[in-house]
Specification:
The chain is mostly helical. It has two domains: 65 residues, Homeodomain-like (Arc Repressor Mutant, subunit A, Orthogonal Bundle), CATH 1.10.10.60; 122 residues. Helices cover 80% and strands 0% of the residues. Keywords: DNA-binding, Transcription, Transcription regulation.
Length: 201
């Protein structure tokens, strides 16, 4: 006898809900203590499922990563090049770029603070971080070169990348505290780096 359609649909619905609970629990645990410190037993307890169930869906920590990164990224603040480039002045454009990039760093901080150790143990995470850094660098270059109407030298771009990096945001946040102060300090530094190009406005 062929399986009844509604039984198949119900089973798929239950599996999807189980998957969602596991990934949701894992995302929360990764924010609390990092990926390498999170065990399948931790995930099972948080998700309200058995340990074998977690292994059934995700045999390894690496198998969980794409799902967790996808869920964590879903609500991340976007960086909108159009909104940045709509700024009335070049200086304001730089400030908007800093604000947008740093807002993403602040959002991802609960997970990013563990990546130093996690990336060493999980090559897939290290690769994802490298790809993310490359995407951010390309976006920043595109925005800045349009805003400043020039091709930026590699030295200036290297300094820009350091300034927009998560670690720089983290150190400024630890030192200055308030997001407005952090953004202002970074925007001021960015203007100094790019002052020869801004002054030609």
């Amino acid at each position: 006898m062929a399986p009844r359609p509604y039984n198949n649909a119900l089973r798929k619905e239950v599996e999807a809900e189980t998957l969602r609970r596991i990934v949701t629990a894992t995302v929360a645990l990764h924010a609390e203590k990092g990926a390498t410190a999170t065990s399948h037993a931790d995930i099972a307890e948080r998700a309200g499922v058995s340990v074998p169930t977690v292994y059934k869906y995700f045999p390894t920590k690496s198998a969980l990563l794409p799902h967790c990164m996808g869920m964590a990224s879903r609500d991340a603040p976007a960086i909108d090049p159009g909104a940045i480039l709509a700024a009335p002045t070049r200086a304001e454009c730089l400030a908007r770029l800093v604000e947008a990039v740093y807002a993403r760093h602040a959002y991802f901080h609960p997970w990013m603070r563990w990546t130093g150790a996690d990336a060493l143990a999980l090559p897939e995470l290290a690769q994802a971080l490298q790809e993310g850094q490359a995407e951010l660098a390309a976006l920043a270059r595109g925005v800045l070169e349009k805003a400043l109407s020039c091709v930026l030298p590699e030295t200036e771009m290297a300094l820009v990348q350091v300034l927009l990096d998560y670690c720089t945001w983290q150190r400024l946040s630890e030192s200055l505290g308030a997001a407005d102060d952090v953004n202002c300090a970074a925007a001021t530094a960015l203007r100094r780096i790019l002052s020869p190009f801004i002054e030609s406005e």
